[in-house]
Write a structure and sequence with these properties.
It is a single chain. The protein has a domain of about 120 residues: Jelly Rolls, CATH 2.60.120.10. The protein has about 170 residues and is mainly beta. It is about 5% helix and about 35% strand. It has two helices and 13 strands.
Length: about 170
């Protein structure tokens, strides 16, 4: 069947879109059968196996109060973490020598191959995040590295947004 658009153009019906178009994955239907890192619970919402995603992996991460993950990286993948609730403290570097914090509404970017660790900096509340990666595979390489005792705090700023002076 052919449909005519308001601009006069025509297109064929794409019947496969009914079953291969938009997908809604309910929050209570996430898949925990995904690579894990000690100290956190990952659950996949969007990946190749679940919805046929070609270039993305998305899901949730929960870190219990006062808990921290083991050091790890995600290979060649880029990751974006959105903090839904709680207080995240990220450590990164060859010896986890750098640190920064993020709260609800903040985004965290993790470049490829960067060793990092997520920490729940709140002793009373779980850290709830949404995680998106740049590939449909859930690549996780857990690391055994010695962390420095006192990491350096880093306030990241881009060329447009200058650091606040304290």
């Amino acid at each position: 069947m052919t449909h005519r658009h308001e601009d006069g153009s025509e297109h064929e019906d794409h019947l496969p879109w009914k079953n291969d178009g938009v997908r809604v994955v309910r929050g209570d239907q996430l898949d925990t059968n995904t690579p894990q890192t000690p100290g956190m619970n990952r659950a996949a919402a969007i990946n190749f196996a679940r919805v046929g995603a070609q270039k993305l992996w998305a899901g949730t991460v929960t870190i219990h109060p006062n808990a921290k993950t083991g050091a790890h990286h995600h290979g060649a993948l880029e990751s974006v973490i959105y903090v839904v609730s709680g207080k995240a403290r990220m450590r990164w570097g060859e010896h986890l020598e750098f640190t920064a914090e993020a709260g609800p509404g903040d985004f965290i970017y993790v470049p490829p191959y960067v060793p990092h660790q997520e920490i729940n900096a709140n002793p009373n509340e779980a850290l709830q995040c949404v995680l998106v990666r740049s590939d449909n595979e859930a690549t996780v390489i857990n690391l055994d590295i010695a962390a420095v005792e006192h990491p350096e705090n880093v306030e990241w700023v881009d060329p447009i947004h200058l650091a606040s002076k304290s």
